[in-house]
Amino acid sequence: MPDYDGVNGLREEFRVVGSRNLPGRLSQALATGVAKFGLDYVMPGMLHAKFLRSPYANARVVSVDATAARALPGVVEIITWEDEEIRALGSRGERFGTSKPWLDNIADREGVEVAVIAVAESEDICEEALRALVVKWEVLPHVTDLIKGSREGAPVIRPEESTPPSFGRPGTVNNDFPKKGNVYHVELISGDIVEGFTAADHIVEYDMYTPAFAAHLPNPSGSIAWWSKDPYQGDGPNLHIEGAVREKHAISVMYGLPDEKTIQEGLFMGGKYCDWGLRKSQEITPLLAKRTGRPVRCVNTREEMYDFLMNERYLHLKVGFMNDGLITAVEDISVADHGSRGSSSFGNVGDLTQGPFNTMKCKNVAQRMDVVDSNRGIMYVSGQHCPFNWDSLTLGIHLIAEKLDMDPIDVAKVNLHGPASQDDPNPVPSFERCIEAGKKLMDWDWHKAGVKVLPDGRMHGMSFRYQMCPRHSGVVYKCKLEYRDGVVHMPTQGPLFGAYVVEANAMVVAEELGLRYEEVSIDYDYREPFRAFGGGSDGTTASAWAMKECANLLKRQILEAAIDYAENPPQPAMFGPPPAEPGPFKGLKPEDLDLVGSKVVIKAEPDKGVPLSQASGKNLFATYTGRPPLSVWSTGPMGKVLDVMNAAFCEVAVDTDTGEVEILRFGAVADPGLVLRPISLESQIDQVMYFSQGCQLLEDFIYDERTGVRLNNNMLDYKKPGMLDAAPVEREFIETRGSNAVYGASGISHSLANTHLVIIAIQNAIGAWVDPPATPDKVLRALGKA
């Protein structure tokens, strides 16, 4: 629903919001290269730290002899997992629902930090010390093949863990099944599956594979920390840490400090794609700095940064449907990677409650999933590249379309329930508008598989998918605005991590106060309570809603002060400039005034007024703590109620002689409710399409079956698209204002990211299915030519 609860939520005219080419507050620093990232900090007397990392897929450190390492010149400390202070760091498992020591002697994936930390005068000496260790390893059986690892008789790699993974609202997923070997079984069943399949005119079954692919972190994770005593921060030591996190609170909690005693002044950190997980290199430096009395820097190499953005998954889907394309029953049987210890369950169990099936009219859905312990790798917190395995239904829609010779868009229309509930027969206005715009954007003319030949002889294929534009809500924002010396200030914490959330907030403030964007001073200060970012796409639109409320509180104060200044003008000072001339506001009420064009004016006579900078001699400030109403995503299983949506399209050309696939273009039509900062939205869509291209055409992890070790943890062998490879993206935005954050905006999250849009277009071109990544050799094999 629209922004009924907020002040001016139904505003009709916008001067600032939605404007193009408004620069980021810190963009110049980035563009000119003067931006200082956390790991650019170099402190006098700085030490370096490195972890011992496992060369095995699954192993245990039995013992470590560090005598030779400690004797090396320049080595300051060799710390093992048995150290009392390391043990005192305690369990960090609450992040993921598993409990394990912060550092121990178990290495359940290759490259994981294990058993030992070396602290020395340089990184090279750290590396030399680690090589000097005499480590006795017990190499254990490993699982990197999920199918083999799920079978009876497979080696059990974590027999001590038996608690099933959990995600989603309590009671929604049945996970009361005993663990068998490496497998946790979870399921969610609704309706009558047997009846649904019995009623179907047709049944299709298919297998779908989603490979794991890497997180996208342009800057290797790490931190530098040091301690100081500053009486301005109160009694006790203060922790300075740079490069660690997008918000310092997590480090404060870990070390038992109030937020005000944790100082993170740096304004820049590498962009992250929904990766909230802290690496050990980001967490350990405060402890090491306290022990040594010197600044300590610890940073991962790029080879150590190939964590998963999404875990591997196998899926078998059975779909029953009528002659008109209406789905009557769905059975989803999946095998999903549980990953190594500490992996998020977002990408597996979360699919069951937040998957695409909630958007269908059909209620007969059985989802059964085996979640398999493995030594393949770790996924930190996120795993929503393609939110909640959305393309399982996308693939099903295209199979139904192929079977019935029916446009897949029409299949989607038949099955999408109405905006209010699964029983609502009405069309979803946002969806209808996205589809109408998308067809025009792409010159949509669907054809059956393998029938359209391009003038150059290549085969033409196209595909379509829909999704929601979800807003994850619930974060409470602590906003503050100041009117000081005639200027409006918006103080906020840093750092900038790739999302220009603060700028959107400033645009809303300018809108509400009748100012230009440039007239709102964005003041970065680590001591401020305001953090513009929230959970997922909640950041921009929800924080801006709270800031809108704060701006209107300040506006009231400014108008009251302007009247007071007019009625009680200050006396001229003996020295200094004369006071500003008051406005013609005597006898008026705040309701009689407005802020327009950077002036305080009389509503009835808008040509009468004074510049805001001269309206009052007072310094004012307003605070607001709160959030917008919960989104439809947060008030029930995602998809049961539909507000704002999007549609994505892909067009490819396939050379059947070489197997080469060219993405001719992506198309994206999105309804985020209202576009706040267009360049941010456009960039996010370009980003997710770039990711989608990579995971479907290039990216894959290669494992040595015998050892379980990855063979391509580097930027040469792990293929990503380069700048010249990036496919063109055509975009169009719909603004229905149908959500309930600021001005009816919702955000878009990464809902346009996908794992099979390109794959489906390839099938439409050649009439054969290819598992991602669709490399030329796979395409030729699918065509029977290799």
Summarize the structure.
The protein is 22% helix and 23% strand. By secondary structure, it is an alpha+beta fold.
Topology of this structure?
Elements: H1 27-32, E1 47-53, E2 59-65, H2 67-70, E3 75-80, H3 84-88, E4 106-107, E5 113-120, H4 123-132, E6 134-139, H5 146-149, E7 183-190, H6 193-199, E8 202-210, E9 213-214, E10 222-228, E11 238-242, H7 249-254, E12 262-263, H8 280-283, H9 285-292, E13 296-299, E14 308-310, E15 313-321, E16 327-339, H10 349-354, E17 365-373, H11 391-404, H12 408-415, H13 429-442, E18 459-468, E19 477-484, E20 487-492, H14 501-513, E21 520-524, H15 538-567, E22 593-596, E23 599-602, E24 609-611, E25 620-626, E26 645-654, E27 661-670, H16 678-697, E28 729-733, H17 757-766, H18 776-782
